[in-house]
Specification:
Layout (H helix, E strand, L loop, with lengths): L1 H10 L9 H12 L1 H14 L2 H11 L1 H12 L3 H25 L3 H28 L1 H19 L1
Length: about 150
């Protein structure tokens, strides 16, 4: 008889609703692991950060992702490095020539500053545009648009 009793008690469905998985996870976090809760809070803060949201909108943009894909599939890496190297050598020569013309500290500092700024602008925008063309311009335009929206908002 006891065997029949246990079989009949396991065969009847329970009337209590099953707890949701999310509730079980939350209970586990509250009871078992305060360190895990702290880590999950930091992940939530990272996911909810405005820069993360801006990056997510950028990655979801079809035009941006296709431009990045065209850049990554293009075989312009060697040419890019060659152009960057030529630019660097030309800037060094030009900087040396300009610094040889100034004798005092302030003009030398200003020369270093404006030539450095021009170099970085050329190295970050013009040289990649020469190598990868319209795809780079499209990707950079979307990056600038998202950055401006993020920092000016």
């Amino acid at each position: 008889m006891p065997a029949q009793e246990s079989a009949s008690s396991t065969a009847t469905p329970s009337t209590a609703p099953a707890p949701k998985l999310a509730d079980q996870v939350q209970d586990f976090i509250k009871e078992q692991s305060p360190e895990l809760k702290r880590q999950l809070d930091s992940v939530n803060a990272l996911v909810n950060h405005p820069l993360s949201k801006a990056g997510a909108t950028l990655v979801q943009d079809q035009e941006f992702t296709s431009a990045v894909s065209r850049i990554s599939n293009a075989h312009g890496g060697t040419r890019f490095l060659a152009y960057e190297g030529v630019l660097l050598i030309l800037v060094w020569i030009f900087r040396a020539w300009r610094l040889s013309k100034s004798n005092t500290l302030l003009p030398r500092l200003l020369t270093q500053a404006w030539i450095g700024a021009v170099y970085w602008i050329l190295a970050i925008t013009v040289v990649p545009w020469l190598v990868w063309g319209e795809a780079f311009r499209t990707a950079l335009g979307h990056l600038v648009k998202v950055a401006l929206r993020q920092f000016l908002a």
